[in-house]
Amino acid sequence: MKNRTLAIIKPDGVRDQVVGAIIDKIQKNGFHILAMKLSKLTKESAGEFYAVHKGRPFYDELVTFMSSGACVPIVLEKENAVAEFRNLIGATDPAEAAENTIRKLFAKSKGENVIHGSDSDEMQK
Ligand code: CMP
């Protein structure tokens, strides 16, 4: 069944000028873009978005980073979109990500890892 997932190209991706390359990769993997914009999160909205990680050692750093510049949220559609997109982006730490995944190709570190993908159909995380 076709379903939707939320991708966010993070501020490092916008700063490093790899938005086009990442979108190209996403589309070549069969995802359809339903909505997309350039948007800067406030610290408050980044904190709410990542509320599930509140209390973890990297939380403050994550919220500061996610609100440090513009990002590109994208709603995508494909068969089995959530799981397929998690496969395409690769492991959280780019050093552990599989070859040819977006994080392996474009991310520098676990904290600044270029892209987010929902981990459930709730479309909140
Ligand atoms: P993301 O998939 O957006 O979801 C939570 C984010 O927290 C994750 O990507 C990383 O960017 C960040 N994160 C997870 N673990 C760590 C860590 N150990 N150190 C720094 N950031 C982390």
UniProtKB/TrEMBL annotation:
Cofactor(s) needed: Mg(2+)
Domain (Nucleoside diphosphate kinase-like) spans 2-125
Q: What is its EC number?
A: 2.7.4.6
Q: What is its main location?
A: mitochondrion
PROSITE patterns in alphabetical order: NDPK_LIKE (PS51374)
Q: Which residues form the active site?
A: 116 (pros-phosphohistidine intermediate)
Q: Where in the cell is it found?
A: Mitochondrion intermembrane space; Mitochondrion matrix
Gene Ontology MF annotations: ATP binding; metal ion binding; nucleoside diphosphate kinase activity
Residues involved in ATP binding: 10, 58, 86, 92, 103, 113
Q: Which GO terms describe its biological process?
A: CTP biosynthetic process; GTP biosynthetic process; UTP biosynthetic process
Kindly state one GO CC term assigned in the UniProt record. Answer: mitochondrial matrix
Q: What InterPro entries does the database record attribute to this sequence? A: NDK-like_dom, NDK-like_dom_sf, Nucleoside_diP_kinase
Q: What SMART domains does the annotation carry?
A: NDK (SM00562)
Instruction: Name the UniProt key words of this record, in alphabetical order.
Output: ATP-binding, Kinase, Magnesium, Metal-binding, Nucleotide metabolism, Nucleotide-binding, Transferase
Top class in the EC scheme: transferase
Q: How does the entry describe its membrane topology?
A: Peripheral membrane protein
Which Pfam families has this protein been placed in?
Answer: NDK (PF00334)
Q: Where are the transmembrane segments?
A: none
Identify its protein family: Belongs to the NDK family.
Recorded protein name is Nucleoside diphosphate kinase, mitochondrial
Q: Which organism is it from?
A: Potamilus streckersoni
